[in-house]
Amino acid sequence: MDSSALQFHRRLSIAPMLDFTDRHERYFLRLLSKHVLLYTEMIVANALLHAAEKFIQRNAEENPVAVQLGGSDPKMLAECAKIVEDAGFDEVNLNCGCPSERVQCGSFGAILMKNKNLVAECVQAMQSQVKIPVTVKTRLGVDDLTSFEFFEDFIDTVHAAGCNTFIIHARTARLRGYSPKENREKPAIQYESVYRLKEERPELNISINGDIKNLEQAKEHLKRVDGVMMGRAVYANPWMLHSADAEIFGKENSAPETREELLELFTPYVEKELAAGCPLSILVKHLFGLFAGLPGGRKYRQILSEGAAQGAGAEILKKAISAVQSAQE
């Protein structure tokens, strides 16, 4: 996929989320939108080099898909970028935004914002090995380095190394004192800083991330930046993507007309994965939010959860659908 086509898909992307955006979730979301850009969970570079087949599994139907890497060794990241490209992914992204202590111990994630030159070296090394875009996901700042000047200098340094696309979580990261969950909620979101960057650096492709809960909010952000990245809001309510192809991309919607039809489309995939040895619990956890807030939604989730615990098969999806339909009659 050429970079101009990928920029079109970047108008809306789904954030890399550990334990959430696995290949099963990506297959499921692709049934809702042909055009949204999907991301893998973050993959640690060292782990990818030692067990590539485990980490780069994908279904051909998932594309466009980007791989997010965690690491800080330019040579190792370059090798990983080549693996990612050869495996058929459309983009490789460097994580400079994750604040967790485990990631800090590995000297990657948000702590990399403190070493802009190393990030630039990593980007250059990755780009030397691949033709697919190399992008960076970052924050507005880290710890006490919170000025706009610091943020813009970081972006300019990495851009000079060849990175043209940045996905920005519009808040700073606190590496001590805040949990990862707290770092998703505070300090206060600062969308204006991302807008300002786009205004001052119009040549860059800028996506905004953080506390974006629906497509209406996404469309408002798209008036000021190039792309929007959503995360947990979509996981909690995946059905919001059923109108994304039309509302965000100006294309014909590709999603089925009802949630029930969506589950019927997903059922053959569940059957195939169960036959290959995948636990039902791994497959159905991505479906829990589909009927959130609707009559029968709680019963639907209960049936899926209990069925997974009891070793049920794909027929549990039909049972869950029936429970929802009964509640809505």
Describe the 3D structure.
There is one protein chain. The protein has 17 helices and nine strands. The protein has 329 residues and is of the alpha/beta class. The protein has two domains: 3-247, TIM Barrel; 259-328, Four Helix Bundle (Hemerythrin (Met), subunit A). β8 (205-209), α11 and β9 form a beta-alpha-beta unit. α7 (116-127) runs parallel beside α8, α14 runs antiparallel to α17 and α16 runs antiparallel to α17 (315-328). It is globular. The protein starts with a helix and ends with a helix. The mean pLDDT is 94.
List keywords for this structure.
single chain; TIM Barrel; 17 helices; alpha/beta; globular; 2 domains; 329 residues; Four Helix Bundle (Hemerythrin (Met), subunit A)
Largest sheet, described in full?
A: 8 strands, parallel, barrel
Rg calc: 20 Å
Residue fraction in strands: 5-15%
Overall geometric form: globular
Number of domains: 2
**Number of distinct helices:** 17
Instruction: Name the CATH architecture of the largest domain.
Output: Alpha-Beta Barrel
Structural class comes to alpha/beta
Q: The CATH topology of the largest domain, please? A: TIM Barrel
